[in-house]
Each structure stands twice: as C-alpha cells, then as structure tokens.
Design goal:
Elements lengths: L12 E3 L4 E5 L2 E5 L6 H9 L6 E2 L4 E4 L3 H11 L3 E6 L2 E6 L4 H12 L7 E4 L5 H6 L2 E4 L5 H6 L2 E2 L4 H15 L19
Parallel strand pairs: 8-9, 9-10
Antiparallel strand pairs: 1-2, 2-3, 4-5, 5-7, 6-7
C-alpha cells in the first residue's frame, strides 16, 4: 500500500484490481484470491515479457505481450484471466475484478451497492461501474466505458475525480442527467 500516504482516511481499500482488500484501522490485508504459482512469473520473464509487475496476487505487463501471457496460461493449465487497462495487460485469478473486490468491502462495511458512486476510465472498470448505484466515467475514459456510464465527466484523470467530488458535495448529483438508467434496485440488489 505504498501508493498513497493517507490510507487512514479510508474505511477500506480495494487493491490489485479487486484481488486484495486492505483496511487501515487496524492495518490488515485480506487476499480475495490466491496468487498464481511462482513459476508463472518466471516463465513469463523467460519468454521476454518485460516489464512485468508482480503484486501480491495480480501480475501486469504491457501490450503487445498479451498473446505470450495467454499462451503461458494455456500451457501451464492455469485458471487465470487477462484484462486490459488501456495499454496495460493484467493477469487476475478467475472471477476476480473490481466489482468482486468492492462487494467484499461493502459486505464488511455494511453498505448497500446502491449507495456507492464509482469512477473509472478503462476496460477493467466495466464491472465496477455496473456494480454500483451510479457509475461514472472520467473524460478520458475509453469509449465503451463512457457508453456504459450513468454520468460522463468533462474533465480527465484526477481532475475528473475532483469534478465528481465537487458535484457530490455541491448537490449530491441532484439534477444529473444520466446516460443510462440505474441498474440496481433501491435495496442494492439486482
């Protein structure tokens, strides 16, 4: 959890694309899946997949290495999935995504998904936007995510997140014209 210096302001953090749940008080990491076997990363590196980032559970590289990654998964007989994050190629355990991680966090916190606003920009954010009461895409989001979002912001990256926070604080998104209808019932259940 080196990416943020202010972890203690959060109740829970869904990390590694949904594979790891971190709670800052007390500091606790809970893996939501098992990591791939160690020889998986070694085999990828032997096949020239660089750079290769290895988290606690998720591995990531960049295009055009996706075919080599898929070949190694198949050859080793592993149940892993490849998902894209713009130019990044991410390898996750089957069934793990940002939505599955969010659901685990919300269950611990006792918060219904209907009360959650999510924000994303890439292919790996589809499940997250779908799992929340309101799914938001920042201005630089991939076109497919913008089409799926309830709200598309004008600003990009972090400035888009600030735009969203300002709108929530100003009027709780009242009067926001949605791109698609709400996907969850008032209880947060599909």
């Amino acid at each position: 959890m080196r990416a943020c210096h202010y972890l203690d302001v959060f109740d829970a953090i869904v990390a590694e694309n949904g594979a790891l749940l971190y709670t800052p008080r007390p500091p606790t990491e809970r893996p939501l899946a098992s990591p791939p076997p160690p020889d998986f990363a070694a085999t990828l590196m032997e096949r020239g997949v660089t750079p290769l980032s290895c988290g606690r559970i998720v591995l990531a590289t960049w295009q055009p290495h996706e075919q080599v990654v898929l070949d190694v998964i198949r050859e080793m007989g592993l149940e892993l999935e490849v998902i894209f994050n713009k130019g990044a190629v991410m390898v996750l355990p089957s069934g793990i995504n940002k939505a599955s991680g969010l659901k685990a966090a919300l269950a611990e916190l006792g918060i219904p998904a209907q009360q959650v606003v999510s924000v994303g920009d890439a292919e790996n954010d589809h499940s997250l936007l779908e799992a929340c009461g309101i799914g938001v895409a920042v201005g630089n989001a991939v076109p497919a995510l913008k089409r799926r979002a309830d709200l598309v912001l004008t600003k990009v990256r972090g400035e888009g997140v600030i735009e969203l926070c300002d709108a929530v604080l100003a009027n709780d998104l009242a009067g926001t014209e949605r791109v698609t209808p709400m996907r969850l019932s008032p209880t947060g259940v599909r």
